[in-house]
Amino acid sequence: MRKPRDFDAELKALGDKARNLKSRKVQQLGELVIAVGADTLSANELAGALIVLAETKDAAKREAWFKRGAAFFQGRSRRNAPTPDRDTGSAPAQPGGTRPPSGGKGAT
After folding, report:
1. Is residue 1 part of a domain?
2. Of 30, 57, 100, 101, which sits with the fewest C-beta atoms within 10 Å of its C-beta?
3. What is the rounded distance in angstroms from the CA atom of residue 44 to the CA atom of residue 51?
């Protein structure tokens, strides 16, 4: 005879897993905000910039943002090894990363 499944325990385990994943996602988003230097923005500025980004349908802009983000993440992984080389390249990228959303916002 088969053992009956404990659906309540399985549902609880899935709920716990979902909560852990959501918590990790929120933590990683916060770490990303700090890593790109956007933690200097107010919550309203950051929310406004994200709304503009989410509403943008221009494929060229989105592709440019994608490439810039990919370069950021590739630079982060390389920054761990040759720190002095990447520090000079990353310092100008952070202020530039926080300014285009407001510049792009004014342009649209």
Report:
1. no
2. 57
3. 10
**What are the per-10-residue average pLDDT scores of the chain (108 residues)?**
89 97 96 94 94 95 95 74 42 41 43
Q: At what angle do helices 43-55 and 83-107 cross, to 10 degrees?
A: 70
In a domain, 94, yes or no: yes
pLDDT score of 86: 39
pLDDT at 1: 77
Q: Encode 35-74: b = buried (16+ Cβ within 10 Å), e = exposed.
A: ebbbeebeeeebeebeeeeeeeeeeeeeeebeeeeeebee
The whole domain housing 45 covers 36-107
Indicate whether 93 belongs to any domain. yes
**How many domains does the structure of the chain reveal?**
1
